[in-house]
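Notes to self after the Tuesday call (sharing in case useful).
The group wants a holo model before anyone commits to mutagenesis around the pocket. I volunteered. Ligand is magnesium ion. Logging inputs and output together so the record is complete.
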Amino acid sequence: VPVSRIRNFSIIAHIDHGKSTLADRLLQVTDTVQQREMKEQFLDNMDLERERGITIKLQAARMNYKAKDGQDYVLNLIDTPGHVDFSYEVSRSLAACEGALLVVDASQGVEAQTLANVYLALDNNLEIIPVLNKIDLPSAEPDRVAAEIEEVVGLDCTDIIQASAKAGIGVNDILEAIVQQVPPPADTVDQPLRALIFDSYYDAYRGVVVYFRVMDGQVKKGDKVRLMASGKEYVIDELGVLSPTQVQVEALHAGEVGYFAAAIKAVADARVGDTITMANAPAAEALPGYTEANPMVFCGLFPIDADQYPDLKDALEKLKLNDAALSYEPETSSAMGFGFRCGFLGLLHMEIVQERLEREYNLDLITTAPSVIYRVTTTEEEVIEVDNPSLLPPIQKRLKVEEPFIKVEMITPETYVGTLMELCQSRRGVFKDMKFFTQTRTALIYELPLAEVVTDFFDQLKSRTKGYASMEYQLIGYRENPLVKLDILVNGDGVDALAMIVHRDKAYYVGRAMVSKLKELIPRHQFKVPIQAAIGAKVIASEHIPALRKDVLAKCYGGDISRKKKLLQKQAKGKKRMKAIGTVDVPQEAFMAVLKLD
Ligand code: GDP
Ligand code: MG
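Result:
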């Protein structure tokens, strides 16, 4: 196909507004996927994604479409992940497109994710086509939401497409709009090869499969290519397009989207955002915008059963092959034994990895509370990065501690502005701006320490607003603050896995709350268990768990057997997630207690 008849586009939407359903419908209407092989949500193929209804990984699909003008077009849909943790990947997949469909649920309206994705699309100079989805719903308010998109996003919505991905309404209008409004790729076939990697995954047989968009020049099977950021060179064994299953082709030129395999060992060697060029005739400059997606949130992962340490190591190695953003290194904790300190892009990424380790690799893990990276300047004027609170140098050895700050944009109905401001204030937030769009849409902008958000901020935001508010965030830099290390002592011993870094002004409050929460969570033992919070040598809060008086089974004495059995089973189940710290059994929840202090 000539470049003039190619259209590359993405779909951007807030979660649940219908992106996957619309993608499915487009594949169906263009006969890209036969009716009988159509599984619902073809593009979301990871089990976990399907269960949670979230889109994590990008995929692409090539469709053939005969437009009303009688011409045949190739439409490449490049899917974007929908979550803030993956915004770098969203931005790179948008960079591979000339246009984007902005899908907004007509019964809901503009949300934080809608806006964040629109900003990314505008940064990449994309033509944005707004679409009102779910107009089949009785609660749909197309006029109100169209006005909202004009107001909040600033797009002309006079002729906005009204669609229902579910009922198949407006799908042809969408295809026509893509052909007419999205510009064709620039015709730069004669220039040296530059192709943008927007996704990759590890395949046990072929090595890493790289998804890319050719920006300039062309690439053929057998070519020796160089990845400009990593500097590594590979010979392309297999080249193809995604329709949406992989179909091999001999060559791809500027404007086209495809995949290749070249015996690459891990996705970290072919990172999203890297530029592919020809090894013997390289382009002078890489495509703009490459950065490495760095982990921002860290936690310790420890096997409950020490025998599972090698299995955990193995599992992390395997996951890493497929996840360039995951980092891990061995960690030894006096309380927890051998495990790993793992780094993630954000909270969702952390949850996904933990869940996969337990589900796909059958590991029983204890997870410590999430932490951020602190920058500590020592008295020797050395700057070190601390991702583990227990490793914060003592106060007499540090000059200053800096912590990461983020800009958070929340969108909420006006009625919840008060409670959200209160939440942000209690998390050391700095008010920046408030924009009133409509009764149901007020934007609230705060700067917050990331550490205060990685705990339960998102859950709080949702519960305080009955689920109506949404948020997005971006890292804005490091700031110095009077931060101290809070140690938790159980039965007289400091538990490194419970140590945390907190603001000096909140230390007393957090110390007291932690101690009473732990008292609730740690079961009684045969002996009295003191629990204390301390800063340095100074104990700031203390409680104790009284000793067990009676044998638990005594209650069932003479009672029926099945009740006794049930009780034992219940105890066994509880035990599964216990870690023995000295002589005290501490349950998993205790390590997450800091997330539930309010
Ligand atoms: P995504 O998170 O943006 O990918 O959203 P999904 O495509 O997974 O859709 C979220 C939910 O909305 C699913 O239950 C869909 O069946 C439903 N949905 C999507 N499009 C429509 C529509 O046009 N009308 C109605 N009534 N429901 C829809
Ligand atoms: Mg989806």
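Two things stood out.
The radius of gyration is 27 Å.
Residues 409 and 472 are 5 Å apart (CA to CA).
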